[in-house]
Amino acid sequence: MGDIAAGLLTGLSLIIAIGAQNAFVLRQGLRRSHVGLVVTICALSDVVLILAGVAGIGVVVDRAPWAIEVIRWLGVAFLTVYGTSSLLRARRPQALAVGSDVLESRTGVVARAVALTWLNPHVYLDTVLLLGSIAGTHGDPGRWWFALGACVASIAWFAGLGHGARLAAPRLSDPRAWQVLDVLIGVVMLAIAVRLALGA
């Protein structure tokens, strides 16, 4: 259960951020436009990338044990930058502006959801490299339980964001809410960086 909880918390910490993908899911939720489709595309894409990252890191560890150390320190560096930038962003909080553009066709919505997911380099850093490297520190079969937790976090987040958008709209219009989120994300990221640096 500890590995699942670690994956769940790490996955949520990485995915809860103001970004193009989340903004798109939120906007579709507020407009109630193809919400289920958008949520499914984003969540399943994350699951595929997370599992690929965990599987790939496992192969690397088996064939080149020294590589995990390189990846681990890359993860430490990335998490440190990620956490620090989140804390700095909290100093100048901004509300998430929801667009009022015309509803897109089903094809247009699918194309945009796929593009925002698969053409975003941060998605690969977060899921394949970062979650994969952190999962590798949990050993076997712990890394797969960690992956399960991360996958559940992704599915729950996108489902909650898309379908709960209208309920959250008043709160998300307040810059203070995003400031609190940025602080929490920054602290968690830096804590994970320290754990990785110490080999935990």
UniProtKB/TrEMBL annotation:
Membrane topology: Multi-pass membrane protein
Location of the protein in the cell: Cell membrane
Highest taxon above the source species: Bacteria
Gene source species: Nocardioides furvisabuli
Keywords for the protein's UniProt record, in alphabetical order: Cell membrane, Membrane, Transmembrane, Transmembrane helix
Keyword Nucleus: no
UniProt cross-references to InterPro entries, sorted A to Z: LeuE-type (IPR001123)
Keyword Cell membrane found: yes
Primary location recorded for the protein, binned into one broad class: membrane
TM ranges: 6-25, 37-58, 70-88, 144-165, 177-198
Record protein name field: LysE/ArgO family amino acid transporter
Residue ranges the record marks as coiled coil: none
